Each structure stands twice: as structure tokens, then as C-alpha cells.
Amino acid sequence: MNKKAFIFDLDGVIVDTAKYHFLAWQKLAEEIGVDFTPEHNEELKGVSRVRSLEIILGLGNFQSSQEDKDKWLHQKNVDYLAYIKKMDESEILPAVYETLTFIKEHNQFIALGSASKNARPILEKVKLLHFFDAIVDGNDVTNAKPDPEVFLQAANLVGVSNENCIVFEDSQAGIKAANIANMTSIGIGDASILKEARYCFPNFLHIDSSFIDTLLKD
Ligand code: B16
Ligand code: MG
Prior knowledge:
single chain, alpha/beta, DNA polymerase, domain 1, binds 1,6-di-O-phosphono-beta-D-glucopyranose
């Protein structure tokens, strides 16, 4: 049996940092006079920091200088990091720890494929870093999801062929990226939104060990 690689997205799959991204973006949006709601925040999931700012500025429909944009990107990240600083293991999403443990006990690879440039400090704060054989994040890639670059790099680092990779993702762009790479895509969230996922579960509490076992034998 070939060894598999289980590639996890971070925000929305391992931890719910979307709420902290929202608070930091909302503070910035208020300062620059843009109305930014939780519904708008949905559009930022899985999207890079730079692209997120573009989307927010698009809501206000005004032009700004590169200097302003750089200042705002920095400020948003400073505010976001203040939330991250307070994170601990209690913020790991339900049944994620058990799933990682099960995969490790079965001697399979675990990798991270995230758009976030803060992925490592977050994994450290929630004490999950030791599970990961490879980490690919926003610092490593030039092309954002739905480009498969982040997952291809992860597969490459652990030396597993694409068809033996299984990707857990909460964003449509991430599911698309996994499918383009010919990896098994597993949506975590609402199946009516993650329509293109090969399998979809509301969260890891719904993924039992027999399902993972089936993936191992695939
Ligand atoms: P940062 P993921 C993504 O992480 C988030 O979903 C997205 O909302 C965020 O803008 C992006 O990371 C960049 O994050 O500002 O920390 O570099 O879902 O791909 O793990
Ligand atoms: Mg995500």
C-alpha cells in the first residue's frame, strides 16, 4: 500500500481564525470608512492578505496609493497577531487532534497547505506543529488558490504523488485547487457551497476512522 499524504488547510479546517481576521479587517474598514459585514468576510476565506484588502477597498469603491495599501496591510496584520498571541489548544476545532493522531498512528504523511503567512506561529500556539512533516504557507507560494501550487509543493516535500494526496479544505478556491492537482478533495463545511468537493463533511466530528481507513486503501 502506497503511503498517503493528508494535506490540511489551516484557517477554517484546523482552527477558526476567520473570526480574528474579521475583527482585524473590520477595525481597518471602519477607519477607512468602508462598511464591512460578516457576509463580506465570507469572501475573504482562503484568499491572500493582499487580495483581501483589494476586496475590501472594492466595497468602498475608492482609489488609494500603494503606500496607503502597505500601511493598511501592516496594520491589519499587527491587529490580527494580537489575537493570535492569545490562542491556545482550546481553539483547535473539534476532532481535529484525534484525526491527526489517527493519521500519524497509521504512519502516513501530514502536511499543511495554507494561504496564511502566519501559519507557523498559529500551529505553534495551538501546539500542533509536531504533527507536520511539511508546511507550505503564504510565504512559500507565488500563486494563490485556486492555483494548486501550495498543494503541489506540499506533495513534493513529502515525496507523494498527487493521486495519493488527500486535501481537507473549507474554501471553494481550495477545493478547486485540490481537484486541479488531481488530489482527493474533502470539503469541511457546507456541502451546498463546497459543491465541487469529492466528499464533504460539516466538521471532523463527522469523519470516522473507517472513512480514513477507506482512503488509506484507495
Ligand atoms: P494571513 P487558509 C487564509 O488561510 C485565510 O482563510 C484567509 O482569510 C487569509 O486572508 C489568508 O489565509 C492570509 O492570511 O493574513 O495570515 O497571511 O484558509 O488558506 O489557511
Ligand atoms: Mg481555509
